[in-house]
What we know:
This protein is an alpha+beta fold. The chain has helices spanning about 10-15, 25-30; strands at about 35-40, 45-49. A hairpin with a 5-residue loop joins strand 1 and strand 2.
Amino acid sequence: MILEFPTREDADRFYNPEEYQSLLALRERTANIIVLMSSRSTHLVEATS
């Protein structure tokens, strides 16, 4: 799945919403997720959980 957000802050809010924090431990135990965030430059930031 590829998602696009206007800003890095918008992407962070989507990925880590406050309402979802109580389920974060479950996501980390049960899901294999790789997140790549990129600006318009070629620099990539990888986050895994």
